[in-house]
């Protein structure tokens, strides 16, 4: 199949300018070395002023062309928020878009399975040693040991895009849940805050956990009052009062978790010196601690990457569902307002349903036709978000990333697929551009409140039938809108930015893609373009 190439003006005009400059410099060199050259009768050089004027005119012409090209390619008209025309300019519906997407995916988005596999194995080995050391050390916190000590359960759970086959670019960031073991005399009574009427929307996906006696009687056969007295050391060390009851504090547990990790890392650091260098960065009260893994100078492995692993303390609720600290994003910008009804921010826990989401992706994979590209669409949607952040100031880029977080994008994909009962025949490589356009349309509608982007597991409308049994507290929880934490203006600005990025997608792919300076176009006479007049798809 023959292919022709389009000229990239962003490279061509600077190249012409540089060539003209080189010619002028060459003229000066030759003029300076020609000492025997005869001068004109009046003592003036008639050739150089003419050449200089021509060079100035050419330079002005080049600058005008560059300015015009930049305005045409990177400052298009503002897209309209409604109507099909905002999504279907001719450049987005021609077959060349699929070629550009495929090229960009291969060069900028796709991860090497070999490198990803090595990275996951390396993370698993190091985190496994750290967790085993933490379990063996016991609790260094307010309760030094015994039946009421908080401790590591001894295992860890790998979650996130790296383990769901949709991570992009580099395998340098991972998320790992570290389950904690509660004392045998302590049980939890979790409760969703979704039904709290005066609560800010960002907190309606949070949970609180009150302490209660375990279902089976304590070994000493004590009464309720005696049980509270026995559990007092644990309650004083890890709980806060909420509405007259003791609740497990996410802040106190996170503080203990970071301290325990530091002590455990000191135990295993020497044994890891031969293969890597490890360090731990505390995350404070808003981020979990991060384990940094740096390759050792004497490590001659094939995949020498620096990696960051977020270690997230987790409390198991049952059926693979965990409460995590600190709260996952999105959170309101600025200081947290005082919670109503005696609630305290220290007692708020987030919920992690990564196991259920992995089951949901597996359920979709079983029903997907051969060659389905929905995970590839999700990866390209993340890349589209990253392209849209280019040119923004740091504050605007942070807000853009918070609104269109990777979790929001994954939930949007799951919502689109579940509405259709799974990936249909149209979700194949031949329709990659159309599938990506459908996702962008759905996101636009969610940002403009035409659709609501609910959590895919929480509440009675979640995908409980596809992911198996869920704890009762999750089945009865109020559905959570993932975008409710953002005000209308922020959402509308994000929708405008999303549409603008989508309309400029061919130009952005050519500018930031792999073979950057030449973009292949479909051959003449292809099925989509043959016989169509100018201006039609």
Automatic annotation (TrEMBL):
Top-level division of the source organism's lineage: Eukaryota
**Segments forming domain Mab-21-like HhH/H2TH-like:** 374-454
Q: Provide the topology term for how it sits in the membrane.
A: Single-pass type I membrane protein
- The answer to keyword Transmembrane helix applying to this record is yes
TM helices/strands, residue ranges: 12-30, 46-64
What is the protein's major site of localization?
membrane
Listed under GO cellular component are:
membrane
Q: Which UniProt keywords apply?
A: Membrane, Signal, Transmembrane, Transmembrane helix
Q: Which InterPro entries match?
A: ITPRIP-like, Mab-21_HhH/H2TH-like, MAB21L/cGLR
Any Pfam family from its record, for instance, is Mab-21_C
Q: Where in the cell is it found?
A: Membrane
Gene3D superfamilies reported for this sequence = 1.10.1410.40, 3.30.460.90
Q: Which family does it belong to?
A: Belongs to the ITPRIP family.
What is the protein name given in its UniProt record? Inositol 1,4,5-trisphosphate receptor-interacting protein-like 2
